[in-house]
Fold this protein.
Amino acid sequence: MLFKSLPPGRQYFVSGVPGSFHSRLFPKASLHFVYSAYALQWLSRVPQELSDINSPAYNRGRIFYSNSPNEVGKAYTAQYAMDMERFLAARAKEMVPGGLMALLIPGRPDGTLPAESSIGPIFQPLESCLVDMANEWS
C-alpha cells in the first residue's frame, strides 16, 4: 500500500528492505539520499545492565527510565551511542560520496528529566498497563 500511494507520472527508485537499520541494508555506494524520521530512538537491544539483578542499573518491571537511578540512564545512553555508531557506519558504506542524509530524532534539552520530556507522560501509564497485563498472565 505504501508504494501504491506514490504519485503517478514520476520516476521513483524505492524499495522495502527487510532487516534492521542498525546494520547494513543496501549495496556499497548505492544511496544518494537517506531519510529517517522518528526511528533512531529505538535501540537494537535492551542494555544488559537493566536486567542484571546485581547491577546498579537494574530496572525491573520498567519500560522507561523516568524516576530511575542515574545508572539506568547511563546504560541507555551507552547503548544509544553504540547503536548510532553502527547506524552511521552502515550508512557511510551505503551512501555515494557527496550523498545527503536527513535525520529527525526526538530529544530533550540538557538538564531536563526524562519525565519532563514530551514522551515521558505517555510511557508512564503505558508501563503501568503493561505491568498489569504481565501480572495477569503470571
The helical segments are 70-94, 120-137.
